[in-house]
Structures are given as structure tokens and as C-alpha cells.
Task: structure prediction
Amino acid sequence: MVAFRQGGNAVPNSFCVHAMLDQSTVSNRLLAHLSRDDFALLAPCLTPLDLYRDYVLAIPNTPIGDVYFIESGMVSVVAEKADGRSIEVGIYGRDGFGPGTVLLGSEQTPHHHYMQIGGTGFKLSTKDFLQVTGKSAPLRTVMMRFIHVFMTQTAQSALVNGSSVIEERLARWVLMCRDRLETDEFPITHDFLSMMLGVRRSSVTDAIHLLEGDALIKATRGNIRILDRVRLERAAGASYGVPEAEFRRLIGPL
Amino acid sequence: MVAFRQGGNAVPNSFCVHAMLDQSTVSNRLLAHLSRDDFALLAPCLTPLDLYRDYVLAIPNTPIGDVYFIESGMVSVVAEKADGRSIEVGIYGRDGFGPGTVLLGSEQTPHHHYMQIGGTGFKLSTKDFLQVTGKSAPLRTVMMRFIHVFMTQTAQSALVNGSSVIEERLARWVLMCRDRLETDEFPITHDFLSMMLGVRRSSVTDAIHLLEGDALIKATRGNIRILDRVRLERAAGASYGVPEAEFRRLIGPL
DNA sequence: TACAGTTGGTCCGGTACCGCACACAGGCCC
DNA sequence: GGGCCTGTGTGCGGTACCGGACCAACTGTA
Result:
């Protein structure tokens, strides 16, 4: 779980919970890259919580009450068509926060945000988040830059959905997941992947077999393990890398 | 062209060009929806210019010198893969400005921005833009909200690229184009459309024939005319409408 | 140990779209 | 007029992926 030191007594007041958090122990990249002062501004508002699988961070077209910083696990951002078909337009984990739209002047998002892979994180109320970001321009800039990176990721999804075969898109997804989880192995079913990629479940099975055939990954029931990261990147081809490079350029190492 | 009154002499100084512009005559929706004061802040920095077809507003991964507000015509935002394949991730016209990334703390964008259909607009230097948006929170909010809408559009592109047939996607594109041009007829070739949609040129021809067969559009050499807007929306199905609704909710009527 | 629920492997016919190629038509310049 | 470029119509074989179904294998609970 998360490092968490109480300063005095952790009583919520009208504005923030006075919980003292040690910046050197957080694994969220945005929080870690904040200046000491900016972190001190934000930390008292953060409430650590367990983000179990399927935990809902945001419901489409519904006021966003809380903003989340992820420490571990992974969030899927999913767009849904009126006819019921849906597809993942982006993911974030310890590299970011969400839903970012609150910083763009929209108290709603048209997308689902939910934990695809369980983990932990912090939450703070939208109100507190806007108040704190309103106080510090550098802090706001870090958050904005993440939004830019996330937008790039969404654009990349649009690109590969329209121009890459499933095998490549799967390789991309696995790599993106790895980047955010720090592990080579994570729980995921073919069924979920089929929703993420917007394809048929058995097409995912086929694509997994292709990657397994090249000894890039090893799939077991409800689980995928990466065997050869470098060659997996090669398999993803031009699908993978653009938003990741933007992250490093603007924020820092993943 | 664009209504343009000079106040005194239009000499550039170190900060802004002092050109007086009448808010009631601009057709850009963002500029039109600004408060009188915010408009007065921005207007002196705006230089009107002709945005001819293929005019480049932004080159990928290159510092953005100028920001543009579109008065007429249409911009394509295109993502390109390392293997050369590219696809449109969004469009904007008199509904917006670009490249929005400068407001998100990135002086670059990974995407191409260029005039797909020629028109007119205003430009101002990135420096001026940031200075002005730094002065007024309400003005910044309007710009941010447009970025949110554009992000929604990109996400919608990801969704339909992965889950809709070409005919539907073409119908969506034509409708989006119409929304931004105020005309039912506009110049576009099958070849360009094939790049936008990320499909084969002859697949576009086929899709056009399908829509023509239902008397929804009429295509002539290098030109498309909308015959029945309502039924065209029906043909686009669930592909069309989400970002448009966000625009109306957050900014105002198109 | 039996059962139920979940997950994965596989097979079917069907089709949307691909890559490529070639012919033809509209509009322009000499 | 003749030549030329750009844009459009069309055809052919190939394939990636679809929708749907069924069964086998694994896993948790009784």
C-alpha cells in the first residue's frame, strides 16, 4: 500500500484532509515530478484509497465529483457509441491522473473511466483540485502537459484503429500496460481485450497466439506475461511510442 | 474577406499589432462568444490572413510560432505513423482555433495542421497568445473548453475508426465539414478523403456511390454537395454527434 | 467430488476492405 | 485540335476480420 504519515490528527475540515504524505514515497509520476512546494499544496487534499478492479472513476455525462491520482493499477478510458459498441480511447496509471476534463472547464466527460487492473491511488474532490491548481501555475502546467500527452495517446488510438492489424494493436496495448504497471505480468482476459481493441473476442485469441508463436508473450488463463520486451516493441511497429516520447519530453522518465 | 478596421496606424510593436476589429462581424465562434473585454484583449494581437488550401498551420514536432483562429475554410489535423500511413484525428474551422497544445504547456504538436479547404482567419504569435490567455481566466476557459471538445472529437474518431463501416464514417465526415463551412457544397477529392478516413481511394468512391444511391449527397469532379442533411445524419448513425453536443453544451450554438 | 460459472480454443460461412491495375473522363495549356 | 494531368469508375484476387456457435479446460464453491 501507500506510504502515509499523519501530521497531527487527520481530521477532515471544510477544505482539505490534513494528511501528510512523503513525496519521495509516492509512485505517481506527476506527483513525484512536482516541486516541493507544489506537492505540499496538493498533498493535504489527497485521500489514499484502494482502487479495486472495476472501480468507477467517472460515469459519462455525469458531474465529476472526484479526481484521482493513480499509484498502481490501470484505468481504461472508454468511449461508447449510441448503438452500444465501445472502444478504449486511452489508458493511464501511475503516469497520470483523471478525469482531466475538469481542468479544461468541463465538469463532465463523455467517457467511462474505470479500473481495468486493480491498484491504489489518491482521490481529491474536484473543488479542491481546481482550488489548488488555481493557486500554482507550475502545478497547473504539469497537469496540462499530462492532458496533452493523453490527447496524443487518444490520437494514436484513432490512428492505429484505422490502420493497423489486430496483432500490432495488441502488442501496443500490452506495452502500454507494462509501462504503467512496472511488471511484465498482469491479469487480463481475452474478453476484456476484445472490448478495449474493439474487436471480436476470438480475434484477440488469434492475435495472442501469433505473439505467443514468436515467443514475445506467454498467455495463461486470465493472464499475460511479457517474455521479450524489445521484440514486442518491434512487433508493435509504428503503433507504439509517440505518446510515450511526448511524456518523456514534457514531464520526465516513465 | 474579413471585417477589419484600423485604429490609428497598424504598426506592429513589440507586443501586438494595434488593429481594431469589430466583434459583431467575426464568424469565429470562440471569438464571437468572448466577453466584450476579453475580445478587446485579444483583438489587437490578431492579424487577418488568407488561409489558402494546403496552407500549413503546424509541422509535427516543430516549435509552434503562431496560433490561428479560423474564419472560414477547414483545418485537418493529421497523425502520421512512422511507416508513412496517416489518418485524420480531427478537424476545426470557424468553431475553433489551433494548435491547442500551446495552451497545454507543449510548444509542439506531434500532428500536422493544414488547410484542407481554403479560407481566411487570424493569426497571432504563440507568445502573444500565451500572454493574453495568462491575463484573463474566462478567456482561457473558453479556449480550454474548445480543447476539450476537440479531444472528444479525436476520441470519437478512435471509436468510429475501430467500429464503423466506411459509409458511416464518410457520412460523419461530410456532416462535420458542413457544420464548419456553413455551406452544403465543398471542394474535396476522393483521394483526400481516403487519406482522411485512412482507407483506399476506391473504397471512398464506393462509399460515395452508396450515399449517392440514397440521394443523400451528389458528387461531381472534386466536389461534394449535400442533398438531404437529415437523412445523412441518419446514415452516419451513432458515429456523429457527440463532440458537437459537447460544443453546444460548453460554448454555444455552432 | 460434483457442479456451475468463467475463460479460452476452434470452426463455419460471409463480407468489408485491401492492393493493384487499368481505362476513361473532365478540365487545362499549347 | 491534340496532349496532358488529375480525378473517377471499375474489376480481380486476396485476406483480415466478422458474427455466431460449440465445446473443452480451468477455477471457485458446495
In short: The two ends of chain B are 20 Å apart (CA to CA).
